[in-house]
Design goal:
- With 655 residues, the protein is of the alpha+beta class.
- 37% of the residues lie in helices and 19% in strands.
- Strands 1, 2, 3, 4, 5, 6, 7, 8 and 9 form a nine-stranded mixed beta sheet that branches.
- Helix 3 (34-45) packs across helix 6 (122-129), helix 4 packs parallel to helix 8 and helix 20 runs antiparallel to helix 21 (589-604).
- Residues 55, 58-59, 117, 122 line the site of magnesium ion.
- Residues 236-354 form the DNA mismatch repair protein S5 domain.
Amino acid sequence: MQEHGERRGFLNSPSRMGDESAYSTPMPIRQLSEPMINQIAAGEVIERPASVVKELVENALDAGAARIEIVTAGGGLNLIRVTDDGSGIPEKELPLAIARHCTSKLADDIHDIRSLGFRGEALPSIGSVARLSIRSRTANGDSAAEIGIEGGRVSAVKPAAANRGTTVEVRDLFFATPARLKFMKGERAESSATSDVIKRIAIAFPAVRFTLAGSDRSTLELPATDDSAEGRLRRVAQVMGADFPANAITIDAVRDGVHLAGHVSIPSFSRANALQQYAYVNGRPVRDKLIAGAIRGAFADALPRDRHAVTVLFLTLDPAIVDVNVHPAKADVRFRDPGLVRGLIVGAIREALANAGIRAATSGAAGMMAAFRPGAASYAHAGPANGHRSYEAAYRASGFAGFDPARSPQRPLDMGLEGGGFPDTEPGNGGFGENDQAAFDAGPLHSADARAGQDEAAETLLGMALGAARAQVHENYIVAQTRDSLVIVDQHAAHERLVYEALKNALHARAVPSQMLLLPEIVDLPEEDAERLALHAETLARFGLAVERFGPGAVAVRETPSMLGETNVQQLVRDLADEIADNDTVDTLKERLDRIAATMACHGSVRSGRLLKPEEMNALLRQMEATPGSGTCNHGRPTYIELKLADIERLFGRR
Ligand code: ADP
Ligand code: MG
């Protein structure tokens, strides 16, 4: 209340009244001065040092440079210098380069833009708010020339010494507009914004070498690769780290003349924000809502709302069907047919994810390996055990109870990882003897005579992607073995995914079968939730959930999807109401249906804690292999991790 009162007081204050009277005697209309016009343009084009770097690097790229060196000081506020080996600017054109609306890039057709720049605005804008100098030499020029502009004041062209190419130097950015200077975030933030700009643009120009250095930063060097698919991927790895390509799938699709290429992370390699999503339209880095939304849509049923895929996507299309002249900073685009572009992105990513089949992030396994590395606390008391060779000694010293050297004379813990199995199992069988398995397997056992015919089957299972189930531990983890690895499956996560995929399939084929409840279940809810559910009753019915209004603030549930079995109806209905509230306005219908399926699947899956028989475990593994997308659960977590035998051996110092 107090605050309100003060506000109102301010609005009616005498000083404000005074302002009004000032407005009532306006100045006559007059043309703004050239420097003033440039400063106004600079307000949009040059937001911070990183925007200067972006404009200068774009110019160097437009000039066909193969090497671009960027140096900054004081976060770019004191100095930005960009040197390129491009075409250079002829001496007589230097004054034009810094004049407003002068460009060598745009002929007559604004619909046919093939360069990064086209507005003829960057250099005069920078020159109006900073001290700018350009030194340049063309391939057939005998010498270099230089021009300067400080806060809009142009100096005469004079001869200079330089190699072919152009060096643009910007000092004291915003000295002429102190108000803008106050908005700068500090050296570190501005430096890192500049690095981001370079990285973003460098991904689109793999054949160009970039170096970014300065007293205010650690040097970033991106050696040139080439324009081939591999070259592009190498540049991506330089910028984003080698683990991205290792955890990404390739996208390559065309629809109606629009080409989409690039890489997206597998769902288990996701991030907490969308900063690692790079998008390019005809080689121009863009930040586009439509593209971001399409990526979100494509991953809608693989990632929870608060996780984001890592992506590098290049759209190539006729310049005539995309408008890049939307904003002076040229990072926004408008597509003539947004539906086509969205459909292409969503379709291509979904298909690629499905074709990639089951694949878990290697980072999960890597983390696990790291956690297991000797030197971890549990080994500390073992004294001499920190060397790689003295494991046996270490086990003895630590009094490891389970190890009986008499039973396994060569190596401790030789658990059949080389196909040998436990001592009483023949080599090549690849499995535990039934009696030995009893100690590990919480599920019921086969009878001993059933075993004879199984050797062959076991051999086949070992060749499958997820191998042969060996045991269930902690009532939720299936331990399986392939020929060259150990696989651990989170049975709850895996089953949830399978149920989800089944629900989706059923949904898109026909209505999901439902079962009638003996007594309708009444769920009390906030009125708007009840209303929302009622609005979606028809959709829910397709999923086998029959809901109807039951007076104010309640719904009655008469039928539930059969595949859920007995389920907590109250919780399910509340979760669905939340789900609809969250996603109603943004997602397309199909995505929404899939999300509802995901929520249902979560409720219907085998909870951890359920004991599985060996056949059930193997059946689950086979189902996972056959189901696209089953490498991650509906929340984007991996459903299994695979440890390569080679890595395990390394852990034990055997390699
Ligand atoms: P735009 O890039 O939109 O044309 P700019 O103000 O950025 O506008 O640059 C003006 C002109 O100066 C460009 O059209 C180009 O001819 C020339 N120019 C600027 N930087 C370079 C450079 N590094 N190498 C060669 N020419 C350049
Ligand atoms: Mg430019």
